[in-house]
Amino acid sequence: TISADKLTGKEKVMITPHQTEMKNLFGINENLLIKQEAKYAEIVLVAEKIQGLARKYKITILLKGPIDLIVNSDNWYFSPGGSPRLTKGGTGDVLSVIVTAIYSRINNPLIAGAIGSFLIKRISEKMEEEWGQFYNASDLVKQIIKTLIIYTKNR
């Protein structure tokens, strides 16, 4: 188990919690979930709250949800969409691996988080179109590989 205090000052650290993990880690009792139909002003309010934590602990936070927030001390991005299937076991681990791989290449946790969130959400939407809700984290990994091959071939 990790505590918020152990995160302090680790500027190159990124965490990828969902709402319950965020509440448990930081002791937040308010709703941080941004619904898909949220207006931009609602997204800004939650992003600013998360940014306060990112500043306090000097970390990058990718808060997973219907609209992901990727936040550090200075900036933030949001990533809407994705399949509801992304709430199932193992898909958050897949996201973490994608973000880590990108981060290892560009050394920028905020941008790595934004790219990773965007990528997994688009791929999950494509999979839902083709497979419905009948895929798991392993299937998601296979589709990521196929998608990256397509994008790098056409480059």
Helical fraction equals: 40-55%
What is the residue-mean pLDDT, rounded to a whole number?
Answer: 89
In angstroms, what is the radius of gyration? 15 Å
> Which descriptor suits the 3D outline?
globular
Strand order, sheet with most strands: 1-2-3-4
Quaternary status: single chain
Sheet of most strands: 4 strands, mixed
The structure class reads: alpha+beta
Distance between the termini: 42 Å
Q: Unreliable stretches, pLDDT < 50, 5 or more residues?
A: none
Strand content: 5-15%
Name the helix and strand elements from N-terminus to C-terminus, one letter apiece. Answer: EHHEEEHHH
Number of helices: 5
Q: How many DSSP-defined strands?
A: 4
Question: How would you briefly describe this protein structure?
Answer:
The chain is an alpha+beta fold and 155 residues long. 53% of the residues lie in helices and 10% in strands.
